[in-house]
Amino acid sequence: MALVTLQETTLAHGRGRHRHVVLDSISLALQPGERVALLGRSGAGKSTLLEALRGELGNAAAWCPQGQGLVGALSVYHNVYMGRLERTSTWRNLRNLLRPEHHAWEAVAELCTLLGIGELLRRPVEQLSGGQRSRVAIARALYQARPHFLGDEPIASVDPHQGARLLRLITERHGMCLIALHQRELALTHFDRVIGIEQGRIALDEPTSDLTLEQLDALYRPWTPASPG
Amino acid sequence: MRSTVPGRPRPLADLLASNRLGRLNRVALGMIALTLILLPAADLSITVRDPWAELQRMTGGLLTPAFSQLSAPLEAIGLTVAFALWGVALGLLAGIPLTLLFHRSRLIRGLCAALRAVHELFWALLFLQVFGTSAITALAAIAVPFAGIFAKVFAEILNQLDPAPASALPRGTGRLSRFLYVEWPQARAQLLAYIRYRFECAMRSSLLLGFVGLPTLGFHLESAFRQGRYHEAGAELLIFYLLIAGLPWWGHRRLLWLLLPLSGWLLGPWPEIDPSLAWRFVSQDIWPPPLLAGDPAGLVQWWSRLPALGPAIGNTLLLALMGTAGTLLVALALWPLVCRHFNGPVRRWLGAGALIVLRSTPEFLFAFVLLLLTGPSMLPAWIALALHNGALIAFLVARQADELSPGLPGIRGLDLYCWELLPRIFPGLLALVCYRAEVIMRETAILGILGVATLGFQIDAAFAWLHFDTALLLLIITCLLNLAVDALSRRLRPERSLTAASCDSPGPPA
């Protein structure tokens, strides 16, 4: 039984005259427990696909968006805390903003230590480096403690060694993981399956055991877009 | 499209003909032409016998303020500040929930527009009937329209934030939690700056509340002016300007925790409200009796006994049009006074001083003073509207011009004005004038309280005669007119990414 299925679904932005089809009539099924890497050039439609799946899975999947979507003026602790904002009352959220709650602080501190940002809990996010921010965004997604995980380039701005460690942390804690990334080597070593998107369609959908690095490179070859019409 | 003759340069003709500015110029020229056509219909008479002698006496008095003649300055200052401070605080208390619902409900947007469209002084006249000359009237008169204004401007500010953090939140996050964690931290500086600007507006409103009988500085100012005690009026005006100029210091965020409770203590004694009388006012007094009795024939008769609406509405619209066109011309003429391209530092400081005084004086007070010299016609109202709003816009436009650097070397004076700077700042200037049209419309209506024949005159009269049903109808008409003018100016103004917040406020202090 598949966890989520798309059957000849067309994903588009905008309406009417401004409608722009990103992915045309795609089909795919994701199984529970599967670790899936999503590859493709920038702008190929990875984010659109992930957004659509987020809509299907709702709060069953932790969400780590592209560009992190952190609130710069708030501390690392508060940004991570936001992962569970919907589970506590507004009143408690307000109190926690003024004075961090003991339990939540402990939980967030433990998670952040694991991710190597344990020292930065009180630091406003706007003062952090790109790599540190990525880890805050991952911490926020892990703090959500959902059965599944959807990530849009969560490890884009960390080095490959760190990236491998972070991927392990993510996949250990979730059933199905669908993660967009550009590091092809990591896709082969840390995932069960690769979905490749090219020119508005799914160009590749194979178990990693059948794939080689060259096949993945093909997804990134230059192509000339058809003239819009 | 006309082609320009090569050879002799004609900057203004080119400006008018150029495609980009074509629509803007049609709006501006159309407005000025319409004003000129309708001008004969406006009552611009001077009915005071010797205005120049009075002006001389007034200027003499204002320039030699006498602080010793003030009756109770500290109490009046305290109340002016207390009303403004608590009015803004209550306005925020109501405005923030409205902000959070603003984009969800058309009903809320309509409600906010209606709250904004009625001027603080009209709200005061309405609340006076129930709460008398008490702090409740003053606070409600400021807080109610401010709630609508805060809701609209805050919603616009929040709308322009980066949407990424909000969309990263888990589904089902409460609206208030989203505001606290995502929107407030991101928009904090902008929201605080706007609240600070609104506090300055509230100080002006608080002053004006004196004109309908609340014991603020305006109350003493009005009687001093009316009785010709110009030395005392000069002292009170000076105190008011100093209060406004000193706002960044005494109104500092850190002092608020001290100011709020201290000034709150001044607000008492609280009136005793008879609930049955208040209920009677709301359920009976403000409605036409035939409507409550279900008598259609009586309603027709009631309608025929109303004061003549046509001339009042016509005068209100005409004065608003004249005020807007006048604002445009004054702004065009005054901005070079404070622009670095035309002045050295000394002249710029003098210009800035003059413009700040014009800007800090509420139109209503300005019109009141001029009216003492000319008698109740549209002339003082027109001058006051044009000078106050023109000065405000001139200031903003000059800041914009300061950032430009002329491309042609050695260009100066009128050439610099026409060729280099005006074409670049004109769209912004016109956008500001269009935004301001709504404010001018609001002010136009209340100038009637001073005796100018706009809707406010009839509203004030209806309240004086205790014809609350008539007053409410006129208030609703005023409100609808204001909404219509707002919609019109929204259509005419240049489509630029100017938010109401950025042009409604005078910006960071220069």
UniProtKB/TrEMBL annotation, chain A:
Gene3D superfamilies named in the record: P-loop containing nucleotide triphosphate hydrolases
Signal sequence segment: none
GO cellular component terms listed in the entry, alphabetical order: plasma membrane
Gene Ontology MF: a single term: ATP binding
Coiled coil: none
Domain ABC transporter: 4-224
Keywords: ATP-binding, Nucleotide-binding
Name the UniProt record assigns to this protein: Phosphonate transport system ATP-binding protein
Organism: Kushneria sinocarnis
TrEMBL record, chain B:
Gene3D superfamilies: MetI-like
Record key words, sorted: Cell membrane, Membrane, Transmembrane, Transmembrane helix, Transport
Top-level taxon of origin: Bacteria
Signal sequence, start to end: none
Transmembrane regions listed in the UniProt entry: 27-48, 76-102, 122-151, 202-221, 233-251, 312-337, 471-488
Record GO biological process: transmembrane transport
Record keyword Transport present: yes
Any Gene Ontology CC annotation: plasma membrane
Main localization of the protein described in the UniProt heading: membrane
Record-linked PANTHER family: ABC TRANSPORT SYSTEM PERMEASE PROTEIN P69, PHOSPHONATES TRANSPORT SYSTEM PERMEASE PROTEIN
Protein name, as recorded: Phosphonate transport system permease protein
